[in-house]
UniProtKB/TrEMBL annotation:
Gene3D superfamilies: Immunoglobulins (2.60.40.10), Ribonuclease Inhibitor (3.80.10.10). Keywords: Disulfide bond, Immunoglobulin domain, Leucine-rich repeat, Repeat, Signal. The gene is Lrit2. Residues 474-526 are annotated as: Disordered. It comes from Oxyruncus cristatus. This is LRIT2 protein. Residues 493-514 have a biased composition (Basic and acidic residues). Signal peptide: none annotated. Residues 325-417 form the Fibronectin type-III domain.
Length: 526
């Protein structure tokens, strides 16, 4: 007892009849562990750390009558090992980790009078385990006869039984079992599913198992863009199936899927598609499977613009612009990987903010057509991420299907590569500051900050001052006066590459009578 043994001692006397080694840290029963003690009748190895039992560990023990392995860590037992112990009467395996009981587990235990499998991890076993037990077979043959049959005590309590169709035969066996087989505790309880947790076996009626049958209320859906869409399928099966959704042969992420039972044999699975876009259109497949097989149902989703039968692309509006429907847009957040836009609908568009739809046009600045994204009511932010390096982008926000107005676009440039994160952050940051201004900033500012070569950035303010001296002074108090180092707008860009190495020229004089080009506002910048 409580000895620091790592293995069965080799010098046990041959005529020993009882061995008891407990709390001694044994970890396995190797082959031929007791080959020199063939007279052994009682073997107690309780409360050790035995995890492995060799199929020939009980070899040369024909007289063994009692084997106790309580409180070990056995997850399986080589049941054919008991062919070497034909006279075994007591087998105690409680408080182990057994989770499977094979159909022929008890075939080689014909003389058992006590079998304890309580407090293990058994969840599903077949009634055939006991129908194949010689003790039960003898009791059936002698039923109604005078021949006496020894009683056999069976302990199966305190296991996490799963009470579904797979346990149906075993539950029926427990309900009908009687002498000579006696249950130590006849009140076996269910651990799952949830709606049966805590119920006794004699309180439940289990149905036969059934292959999944999937269905959907509507297999063809047409929805407006921008709405949160929920696709639903129903599955009838027993036992409860595993359910998953696929789109274009790809498994969809689980956090968008919820599956819950609505009755004993029916589950409902829902797939959420937030702010549906035309790109989300296609076939979504709901698949359910259990051990009997699998079935699926496909739902075809079509996403259209909420105000038109066809999706407009590019810049052309499909309906006349509504007077006063203006959107103020700004950059709320910027990182080295993208920006987050925030907008506010003013005037007529703000009259019904809970019903206002928005259109976002996102793409390269020079692209003829840009990606169209429809945003439903109540949403006023959008993040533009996963951008290409060294690329000029433009993002515009418009009300419904209108063309973007002045001041409703943002232009920005990404850095040359990810390794130049600091430079890239500066470029975006400069444009962010300019675009966030509520000022009529001339277009030349963007050319200077976003398109100029790095050396040009230092020369731009000087060039701006020289041009400013040559031009007509702006009226005091104007919005432009707050950025007095910024040049007036002109059709030719600032700091052109050929200007970098050219000689300085004196500022050009304005010809008398020639009108100066109108000053470009912030919409040109955006």
């Amino acid at each position: 007892m409580s000895a620091l043994l790592r293995q069965i001692p080799a010098n046990i006397p041959q005529d020993i009849r009882k061995i008891r080694i407990e709390n001694s840290h044994l970890t396995e029963l190797p082959r031929g562990s007791f080959e020199n003690v063939s007279a052994l009748e009682y073997l107690w190895l309780n409360f050790n750390n035995i995890t492995v039992m060799h199929i020939k560990s009980l070899e040369y023990l024909p007289a063994l009558q009692e084997l106790r392995l309580q409180g070990n860590k056995l997850s399986s037992v080589p049941w054919t090992a008991f062919q070497d112990t034909p006279t075994l009467k007591i087998l105690d395996l409680k408080h182990n980790r057994l989770d499977v009981l094979p159909e022929h587990a008890l075939r080689y235990l014909p003389n058992l009078t006590y079998l304890d499998l309580s407090s293990n991890q058994l969840t599903i076993i077949s009634r055939d385990v006991f129908y194949n037990w010689p003790v039960y077979q003898r009791s059936q043959r002698t039923e109604g006869q005078i021949e006496a049959v020894s009683n056999a005590v069976l302990a199966l309590h305190d296991n996490p039984w799963i009470c579904d169709c797979r346990l149906r035969g075993f539950v029926q066996f427990i309900k009908s079992v009687g002498p000579p087989i006696i249950l130590m505790n006849s009140y076996l309880t269910c651990s799952s599913p949830k709606f049966r947790t805590g119920k006794f076996f004699h309180e439940v009626e289990l149905n036969s198992c059934m292959k999944p049958l999937t269905s959907a209320l509507d297999t063809n859906l047409t929805v407006p863009a921008g709405l949160n869409i929920t696709l639903t399928c129903f599955v009838q099966a027993s036992p409860s199936p595993a359910v998953w959704w696929t789109y274009a042969l790809k498994l969809l992420r689980a956090f968008n899927v919820t599956t819950e039972p609505i009755s004993e044999e029916t589950v409902r699975s829902e797939l959420l598609i937030p702010a549906a876009r035309p790109a989300d259109a296609g076939n979504y497949t709901c698949t359910a499977a259990n051990f009997l097989g699998n079935t699926s149902v496909a739902i075809n989703l079509r996403v259209v613009a909420p105000w038109a039968s066809t999706t407009p692309r590019g810049w052309a509006p499909v309906a006349p612009a509504e007077p006063g429907a203006h959107v103020e847009v700004r950059i709320a957040k910027q990182t080295v990987y993208g920006i987050t836009l925030e907008w506010f609908a003013a005037a007529a568009a703000a009259a019904e903010p809970g019903e206002t739809w928005y259109t976002l046009l996102v793409g390269r600045y020079d692209a003829a057509q840009k990606d169209t994204i429809y945003i439903g009511p109540g949403v006023n932010t959008y993040s533009v991420t996963d951008l290409l390096p060294a690329t000029k982008y433009e993002v515009c926000v418009a009300v419904r299907n209108q063309a973007p107005r002045k001041g409703q676009c943002v232009v920005f440039v990404t850095g040359s590569d990810v390794s130049q994160m600091e430079q890239r952050e500066k470029l975006i940051h400069i444009v962010v500051i300019v675009c966030a201004m509520v000022l009529a900033v001339p277009a030349g500012m963007y050319a200077c900050t976003a398109e100029a070569l790095p050396g040009c950035l230092a020369r731009c303010p000087r060039a701006c001052l020289r041009r400013r001296r040559g031009g007509q002074a702006q009226a005091a108090g104007s919005k432009e006066s707050t950025l007095d180092s910024i040049p007036a707008g002109s059709e030719d860009g600032l700091c052109r590459p050929e200007d970098i190495h050219s000689t300085r020229r004196p500022p050009a004089r304005e010809e008398p009578g020639k009108t100066r080009p109108p000053h470009r506002n912030s919409a040109d910048l955006y």
